[in-house]
Amino acid sequence: MRLIIIxxxxxxxxxxxxxxxxxxxxxSGDGPFPVTILLHSSGGFKSNYLMSYxxxxxxxxxxxxxxxxxxxxxxxxxxxxxxxxxxFRKPIENDLSELIEIIxxxxxxxxxxxxxxxxxxxxxxxxxxxxxxxxxxxxxxYGVWNFTGGLNGYPAKYIKKDCNPLLxxxxxxxxxxxxxxxxxxxxxxxxxxxxxxxxxxxxxGHAWESRKYKGGVGYNKKIWKxxxxxxxxxxxxxxx
Length: 240
Hints:
single chain; alpha/beta; Rossmann fold; seven-stranded mixed β-sheet; 7 helices; 7 strands
């Protein structure tokens, strides 16, 4: 019986110590590299889409990229995405905070320069990382700011007076996170912290980089690349 308890205890420690699944890629060169964490949408973790299709903009700018799957551990799917911000909110906060510590211990990375960019659902978590000062700066692209079913004021609640820089990029024609619904929440964040910067795009929509999401209704390559450039510049401005 005692042996069973010890084995169970050791297995529990291993499970707890295991970080959430993530993939990483480094730019060419010697390093150490600044890091950008890419946070996926409610569509979930899609390796090639995030690591290459979206990630290349950051790799080509000299950033290492880390892409975590914050759904897998908690059994979240696109259909159960609301659990991300409700019953699994605290566990995901911890998962991402632990991942940042792992990033900082990687000798190929510059531990003083860690950033995050989030897309839709991931934009919520980018706001958390800036508000909790876990990263130097973060950017929310067409992020979740208001959702029926229990967000309880988040992610604006994460933003405090002394927050780290946050760049909010949102399309006025977003049909998933409509402009008129998210603007009051974004405004709350702006009022709380002077380091919150906001830009609204007149063109493009939700998932502006995707030709497939809802038939490509929000796709706009010019806006997608503009958003990536603004984000890279913002991160470079906030390097130490």
